[in-house]
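[agent] plan:
  1. take the single chain provided in the ticket
  2. run structure prediction with default settings
  3. attach structure tokens to the ticket
  4. add a short note for the reviewer (M.T.)
[agent] executing step 1
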Amino acid sequence: MKQFQAFLPALTLSVFLLLGSLFAFTDKAEAQGLNRQGSSLTQLYSLAEQMPNHYQFVRTGEPSITVVVIGSVVRPGTYEVREGTDLNELLLYTGGPRAIGVRDRRITPDVNFFLSRTIEGEGRRIIFETTFEAYTTQFVEFPVMQDFDVVIVETDPVPRPIWREVLTLTSQILSIAASLTLIIWRLRRG
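[agent] step 2 finished; step 3 output follows
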């Protein structure tokens, strides 16, 4: 019985690791099925008010506008740009979208660009949206920015192949099973 008590902490740890692996696997699967645009846009709007970074791309005395860029770009923040700047030029100032996850030549991250503008009598609305794929492969006519526009860049990570998730979970289960087998073998031997 003393031998069993000596291995009890290792056994308990093994069970917790197994349960943690199972919960992590199901949480990832549920997170991939969530709707991106529902609550995330509301959260991004509230972040626009708190942007500490301010960038100027305008000469002294030149007419300018102020726009906010939030989301998955290299340099999010408030931008003071010259009047007549279009969305494409603004995205170049930000450094472009940040890629989240593994980049692969065959698979690119799912990146979406949204332009939100206040329209008199209607409030703030998304007036333009495009994807990174359309941005890089098709001719897209980008709107000219106006004062107090908000640009939102959402980047979804490239999902890991399911076989990697299954392989990770299987290896963790086999590791725990091997530990338990070793514990039982030592208990019977001693």
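[agent] step 4 note for reviewer: The helical segments are 2-32, 37-48, 87-94, 132-137, 162-189.
[agent] ticket updated
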